[in-house]
């Protein structure tokens, strides 16, 4: 029975692999790189890492976890995370399970406790390697997973809440639901394990007893027609993580980002909700579809929506520029660095409202103490005086903390 169920799941995820495939733009030179010596790795996982050509300063690290029968390189090739890393400058770590079936271990006693061994320990080593190698931001480490990878996302957030700031689980199950000596739990997969919110929450709390620090936020996705991991598991995950965060079971807000999506948010209504669930009507075990990964990185706070207005007043040999940086997102920008490239022949002689690095070519302007925070809908104002040798034109692109900003038309 267990073997037949496993083979049925493998067939489903092979269809999933086909449904994930679409064309995504890639960086000109960046490529997926295998790392073989990254630290403790008790279950012999493989590691691949993708660093885009334009890596943000102190970049975020996103761990992307594949489905059963999959691998890190296949997930890299067939999903949007590569293109999103190119756009937003974060690092992507792709673990690969090497055991039979290529499923991650979300069931053994070793996996279900902090530092217990198995896959979570190896993945934690991969994160530490990426942080050392790329000067990754320790406050911006995230996990995203598909099916078996979604189960591991729940496990990582429970075992290492001090490491992961948030996670996104596509078609997963609650932490501890899959516990089984055989590695496959038919009752959990079928959605027949039902617990109270407190019972689910206690399982998470037992993973790292005594922990009182920051709790990771989580985004949960599930198709209503999922035949491999029943849709009921979405509701059980919501019960678990709302209890962990100590927030109510009733959503603070409900909306429809797309016609077939129903999004509920718990704890607070904005993009920084502690728990967010997205129910996708009429879809089976085939997530994410194009566009969903973008919503995941937005939930992580990696998109930092921004708008820049750049207005000049020029004369025959120089100009002044007034710059307004507006936070168009839902959460505050805590510390900012505006980067742009001046046209040839221009050179900054003085500036205000920011600490400037560079006088010509590539320029960065970092916040001062008084304007370090830009609240949603608010702006920071800065400016510069520069000379030119005939071209007083404007930069054609701006980034804030490595993220491309919209340029406000004049």
Automatic annotation (TrEMBL):
<dbReference type="GO" id="GO:0005576">
    <property type="term" value="C:extracellular region"/>
</dbReference>
<dbReference type="GO" id="GO:0005975">
    <property type="term" value="P:carbohydrate metabolic process"/>
</dbReference>
<dbReference type="InterPro" id="IPR001919">
    <property type="entry name" value="CBD2"/>
</dbReference>
<dbReference type="GO" id="GO:0030247">
    <property type="term" value="F:polysaccharide binding"/>
</dbReference>
<dbReference type="GO" id="GO:0004553">
    <property type="term" value="F:hydrolase activity, hydrolyzing O-glycosyl compounds"/>
</dbReference>
<dbReference type="Pfam" id="PF10503">
    <property type="entry name" value="Esterase_PHB"/>
</dbReference>
<dbReference type="InterPro" id="IPR029058">
    <property type="entry name" value="AB_hydrolase_fold"/>
</dbReference>
<dbReference type="InterPro" id="IPR050955">
    <property type="entry name" value="Plant_Biomass_Hydrol_Est"/>
</dbReference>
<dbReference type="InterPro" id="IPR008965">
    <property type="entry name" value="CBM2/CBM3_carb-bd_dom_sf"/>
</dbReference>
<dbReference type="InterPro" id="IPR012291">
    <property type="entry name" value="CBM2_carb-bd_dom_sf"/>
</dbReference>
<feature type="domain" description="CBM2">
    <location>
        <begin position="299"/>
        <end position="408"/>
    </location>
</feature>
<protein>
    <submittedName>
        <fullName>Esterase, PHB depolymerase family</fullName>
    </submittedName>
</protein>
<feature type="signal peptide">
    <location>
        <begin position="1"/>
        <end position="29"/>
    </location>
</feature>
<dbReference type="InterPro" id="IPR010126">
    <property type="entry name" value="Esterase_phb"/>
</dbReference>
<keyword id="KW-0732">Signal</keyword>
<keyword id="KW-0378">Hydrolase</keyword>
<dbReference type="Pfam" id="PF00553">
    <property type="entry name" value="CBM_2"/>
</dbReference>
